[in-house]
Amino acid sequence: MLCEKNIFKKDYKQVDLRFALAYPNVYRTAMSSLGYTILYNCINEREDTWCERIIFPSTNSIESNTPSKYFDILSFSLQFEEDYFNLLKMLKDAQIPLKRSERGDEDPLIIAGGPCATANPMPLSDYIDIFIIGEGENVINELIDVYLSNPDKGLEKFLKVDGVYIPEFDNETKIAIIEDLNETYHVTYPIVSEGDVADDMSVFNNSIMLNVSRGCTRGCRFCMAGYLYRPMRQCDHRKLIDIALENRKNSGLNKVTLIGAAVSDYSNLDDLIDGLESEGFQISTPSLRIESITRNTLETLKKSGLKTITLAPESTSNLRKVINKHILEEQIFTVIKNAIDLDFNIKLYFLIGIPGESMEDIHDLCEYMKKIAEMHYNPKKVKFSVNPVIPKPHTPLQWEGYDFKDVKKKTRYIQKEMKNYNIKCESPKKGLIQYTLSCGNRQVGAIIEKSLTKNVILKEWRDIAPKYEIDDPLPWDNIDTGVNKKFLKIEHKRLKNLKQTPWCETGPCYNCGACEK
Ligand code: SF4
Fold first, then answer.
1. What InterPro entries does the record point to (predicted)?
2. Does residue 512 line the site of ligand 1, with CB under 6 A?
């Protein structure tokens, strides 16, 4: 049975607004989402609002068992495109009409936020009343203020809130970004979960999630988050240590997970780790960039209890140029060797379906993975995860499409060639569906809805999967992330020519547009 500490219980008669934060995936995933936990605490700071959580597959709140349809606002967090199916299922199971055109005054206002909602609201635009575009903390408070000042059902009044897209008006909007991480809201009163099954714990297993940075400007051409949330912003390491101490005081937790788009790029990483370690914290982090991991960082992480190092070389050297992930072979092999010496478990991520990639490249990739595995005294201790590249909105790959047949052929080859190693390949069909949900238009909504009652066959996904030419209008053109299309087109051209675009933190600015937001 699930047991939680530090949740908010309020008297519903004493608040003006009941807000449900819905998560269309299981508890373990929901409670590992930094954005979800920030919004929960941040909204509950308001005396006029009680924010409760509704987590798939349930349609009632955890805090008071209230059914979804009795909330004033029902807000979905969209971290993964595959969760769109669960979102519609949650509405259906809650007996809330799916389509916004079929809902009435007695139904909650349905909103959605998170990276998928930000990048391309179109596939769900017949179902969601308002999308939050960007980092939600500021937008949500303004949206609640507007709601409370005029709770009638008309949506026009929300157009004045920065960072919202309202399908009814098909308005143009600019992404909302937190400028200063030192000034923004950080959780200091974290929920602690205890349960008798692993699913009742967060992925980070009851640790304090410290938001060290947001945004990454390295410019990997496949990475949607890297284009959406520019520029890179960091929180001062002394402030982070204070936040960790406050969290420990309020929760008793002693393990810290460092969260950021690229934690190892954090400029004071060693000071932060040393400071946390001297306060007796155990430290862990899910994301490290190979080129900024030093032996010292690995040793400190090892000492503080980290067991697994997850790295993403993505591909072989030449293909890394296509995706602008310029890591030297020497750096990759040094980090892996150090990680093996320090007895870490090692997990490595690779991509297939990179533009221009041939079967010969796939053969080379298999040899490359074998070479890495054989560095270990027990090659099975090195885990490989191979995933198709999913072209995403607002990236230079948005014009590349998804070649299902090609990905399938390559996946089969790798599975056969690597059968004696510890490898997991993502299904090519899942990749196709994810691509279609990411880059599709309004019509994709009908297929998602159909899947609630009928089986959607592969051919239907293949038929609806888009392929955009460079001058086509794109479904997400109304969303201005700051990064301009001209820059993305230049990057698209550069990827064809294997040209690298350097990191703007250490090199010159190449005017992507993000800093003029
Ligand atoms: S505008 Fe320049 S400095 Fe800012 S993120 Fe883009 S390239 Fe980097």
1. Aldolase_TIM (IPR013785), Elp3/MiaA/NifB-like_rSAM (IPR006638), Radical_SAM_N2 (IPR045784), rSAM (IPR007197), rSAM_sf (IPR058240)
2. yes
Question: Which is the closest atom of ligand 1 to the Cα of 510?
Answer: 7
Q: Is the pLDDT of residue 517 over 60?
A: no
Is residue 283 classed exposed, middle or buried when 0-12, 13-18 and 19+ CB atoms within 10 A define those classes?
buried
Residues composing the chain? 517
Place of tokens 């959406």: 228
| Backbone region of residue 498 per phi and psi (left: phi > 0; alpha: psi in -120 to 50; beta: other values) | left
Q: Which of 25-29, 195-199, 229-233 has the lowest mean pLDDT?
A: 195-199
Indicate which residue's Cα is closest to atom 2 of ligand 1. 509
Specify the pTM: 0.94
Answer whether 217 contacts ligand 1 (Cβ < 6 A).
yes
Same fold, 3-174 and 207-439+482-516: no
The CATH T-level fold of domain 207-439+482-516 is pyruvate-formate lyase- activating enzyme (3.80.30)
Per residue in 189-220, pLDDT (tens digit) is 999 988 765 565 655 567 999 999 999 989 99
231 alpha carbon to ligand 1 midpoint, in Å?
Answer: 6
Q: Whose CA is nearest to atom 6 of ligand 1?
A: 512
Is the CATH number of domain 3-174 3.30.420.40?
A: no
Report the separation in Å between the CA atom of 116 and the middle of ligand 1, taken as the mean of its atom positions: 22
